[in-house]
């Protein structure tokens, strides 16, 4: 009898089982060592960023392998809603996806279709050769893939905020994630994620998605703001990144040991 593998719980299942908000950190460096350090930290989940970081398919594979021994739940953000990218990332073994820049219910439905095999969607069939189905070791993978994988979509424009309820209502969207940085930019408030209008838009989105009965998460590196969003009903949050932790910690190290150190005077600034 062939060896069989049972998949791990998806991010959707992890959110459904949680009795508190799930807290996580980004992996942006592309370093498997940094990823393993994050994975062993005790955090609930991590986001492997394939949109704004130098992380391609080979790196996504290495990062997923680095975090696999740990109980942390990895989510991979693809660069766009391109169904080819989504197919390749899924086949690489990503179980949980985040699709950025989803502005309408139609965008969300297209993202769902890209994650599912026919007749439920348009995902190309190659699981027998892919890590996604553990090389044919997950029994009945083709018919179970939509149950094994999870899809979160990202709301990060003013237009998307206005469509938040309709986006969340799309069947197959398991969770919604809010990106305040691009949201602020779309509102003419570039770099002002803490602006009252941006905060109000985030809280409006949290309320709309919760009303649809779906989990909603947010990115917030300011601890006070993160706690405010969690109190408003966010089910999950990203509160730091591997690169930001290293940057701030090494700046503090320099300041502690070299009082006159000014990082803006170093090469590259």
Set out the fold topology.
Elements: H1 11-17, E1 22-27, H2 32-39, E2 45-49, H3 57-67, E3 73-77, H4 83-91, E4 96-99, H5 105-115, H6 141-148, E5 150-155, H7 158-162, H8 164-168, E6 175-178, H9 180-186, H10 196-211, E7 216-219, H11 223-231, E8 236-241, H12 242-257
Parallel strand pairs: 1-2, 1-8, 2-3, 3-4, 4-5, 5-6, 6-7, 7-8
Helix pairs in contact: 2-3, 4-5
β-strand number? 8
Backbone structural class: alpha/beta
Secondary-structure element order, N to C: HEHEHEHEHHEHHEHHEHEH
Major sheet characteristics: 8 strands, parallel, barrel
Helix content: 40-55%
Arithmetic mean of pLDDT: 94
How far apart are the termini?
Answer: 61 Å
| Physical arrangement of strands within the biggest beta sheet | 1-2-3-4-5-6-7-8
Indicate the CATH class: Alpha Beta
Could you tell me the radius of gyration in angstroms? 19 Å
Beta-strand portion reads 5-15%
Large-scale geometry: globular
Show unreliable segments: none
The tally of domains stands at 1
Q: Please give the count of helices.
A: 12
User: CATH homologous superfamily - what is it?
Assistant: Phosphoenolpyruvate-binding domains
Tell me the CATH architecture: Alpha-Beta Barrel
What would the CATH topology be? TIM Barrel
């Amino acid at each position: 009898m062939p060896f069989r593998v049972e998949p791990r719980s998806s991010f959707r299942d992890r959110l459904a089982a949680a009795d508190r908000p799930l807290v996580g950190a980004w992996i942006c460096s592309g370093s498997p060592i940094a990823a393993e350090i994050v994975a062993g930290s005790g955090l609930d989940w991590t986001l492997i960023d394939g949109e704004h970081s130098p992380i391609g398919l080979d790196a996504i594979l290495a990062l997923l392998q680095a975090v696999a021994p740990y109980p942390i739940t990895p989510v991979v953000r693809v660069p766009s809603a391109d169904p080819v990218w989504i197919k390749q990332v899924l086949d690489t073994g990503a179980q949980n996806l985040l699709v950025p820049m989803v502005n309408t219910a139609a965008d969300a439905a297209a993202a769902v279709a890209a994650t599912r095999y026919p007749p439920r969607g348009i995902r190309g069939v190659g699981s027998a050769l892919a890590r996604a189905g553990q090389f044919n070791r997950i029994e009945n993978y083709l018919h179970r893939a939509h149950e094994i994988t999870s899809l979160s979509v990202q709301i990060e424009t003013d237009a998307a905020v206005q469509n938040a309820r309709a986006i969340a209502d799309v069947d197959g969207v398991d969770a919604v994630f809010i990106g305040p940085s691009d949201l602020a930019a779309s509102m003419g408030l570039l770099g002002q994620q803490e602006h009252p209008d941006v905060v109000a838009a985030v809280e409006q989105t949290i309320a709309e998605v919760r009303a649809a009965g779906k989990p909603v998460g947010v990115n917030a590196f300011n601890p006070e703001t993160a706690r405010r969003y969690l109190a408003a009903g966010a089910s999950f949050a990203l509160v730091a990144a591997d690169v930001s932790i290293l940057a701030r910690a090494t700046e503090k190290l320099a300041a502690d040991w070299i009082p006159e150190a000014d990082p803006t005077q170093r090469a590259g600034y």
